[in-house]
Each structure stands twice: as structure tokens, then as C-alpha cells.
Amino acid sequence: MKNVSVVIVAKDAEKTLPLCLNSIIDKQTLNPLEVIVVDNGSKDRTSEIAIEFGATVVKEPILGRARARNAGVLKAKADLIAFTDSDCIADKSWLFQLVKRYEQGGCIGVAGNVYALNSNRLIPKLIDKLVKDKPHYATWNIMYEKKVLLEVGLFRDFLKNAEDVDLAWRLLDKGYQIAYEPKAIVYHAHREKLFDFFYQQFDYGKWSCVARKSSGKSTIKANILAFIGPLTFFKHLSKALWHPLFPFLLALSSTAYGLGSLKGLKIWSKIRSAQYS
Length: 277
Known about the structure:
The protein has 277 residues and is α/β, with parallel strands linked by helices. It has helices at 17-24, 46-52, 65-75, 94-102, 122-131, 146-151, 163-173, 194-214, 220-228, 232-235, 246-276, and strands at 4-10, 34-39, 56-59, 80-85, 88-90, 109-116, 142-145, 178-188.
């Protein structure tokens, strides 16, 4: 099977990084060629922990996940690069399943599955229903050919969030295919507080809007959610069978995303003004 470089961006991750690295280094059924930890301005023992586990450390002092991932990509030696986050734990067959699906052909990348680490808590349990067993382009679990990342100019570092889905959109716009392999699993600790979840969705909506505008895509649907988001509670009422709070969580997610998208329009306007000034 093809060699894979694993890239993990970490900032002040001394509490979560050991579990992440312990699940990848010498624990995978298909071991990676290398594990690269990009230390994005940590003030704790993140780099020291990575070195202790035998990972390659790249220092990127300028904050930004896109910029940090790009540093990892440029350092990587393998033709395939798998991304995960420092607060994720990989299933032992994670890399094997990604590469197995890739080698079946017809794609330049493979997205994997994500399960909640903390599904015993209410909010993570509900979020798990939203994301588990569904295709995503998030860098908590995805693998790409290095050459296509270089071809499209890597992650766009003016994006402070949604840089991963923006990259996927640009690849798809070029006619490339990204496969989905549900057996390639990582476990992630989802947000446990309602406000944290709201802010996460708001921020994602904001930068997704900027990404869409910069690619000439419409943001109307997302912007409208700012106004009709609360009404989606009734649309999802049948899902109350999963949990009485589930329709509320979906409505909250839609509203936060929509409000963030409106904020994104203002950010994009400033970016455009700076480009032409």
C-alpha cells in the first residue's frame, strides 16, 4: 500500500496530543511513513511531547490553521497526506481504510468518519447524530494526494475557519473526486457547552461565507438562515424521537450558521476593499 504522511496542527495541546499520537504512532494496522506535528505558537509542552513520541515537529509561529497545515504539507515526504486534529483519537485501522479506498481508484482524496469521544454527555451526543456516518470534508479526518494540494495552492490562509471545506470545494470545482470511507474512523471530543457549540457554528458560517464569496459562489441560502433558522425547529420536530432537545439544537445550529454568514459578508467586503485599495 502507498505511504502516508500524517499532519496534525497543534496549539497548546499538551493535554490531548498524547492520546492522539498514541493512537497513530506504531498503533495503526498501516503505519504512516511519518507523523508531522505543526506547533502553531504553543506556550506549553506540545513540541516536547511530539518529539517524545517520535513525531517530526514543524514550528509555525504565525497563528492560523490553514498556514500551519500548509507548513505540514510542504514538509511531508509521502505522496498521500492524511490530516487529523490534536484532540482526535484514531481507530487502529484508520489509515488502512483511507488508503484501501483510495487505491480502489476514481478519487484524489478520501474523507473518513467521526464519532464522539464524549457521547455520554448530552450536547456531544446530539452533535454525534449530526455528523456521524455522514460525508464531511473536515480536516479532523481526510486524506489527499500531495500533488493536487500543491496544484490548487494549498489551504488559503486568509481563512481563519472553513479552510478545509474551501479546499474541497476548489478541488471539486476542478472536476476531482473525493471519496468517503465510513470505516476510516476517528473519535473527537465535541463541544459540551451550548454557547461553545453556538459560537462554533457562528464562526464556521462566517468563514464559509467568505470562502464562498472568494470563489464566486452564492451565499443567499446561508444568509437567509439568519432569519428563518428558528423556524427549522418545526422542520426537524420529528427528530424529537431521538431526543426532545434535538430539533432545538438543529434550529440553533442553522441560526448560528446564518448569523455567521451575514458577518462573513462584512468581512469579505473589507477583504475586497483591501485588495483594490
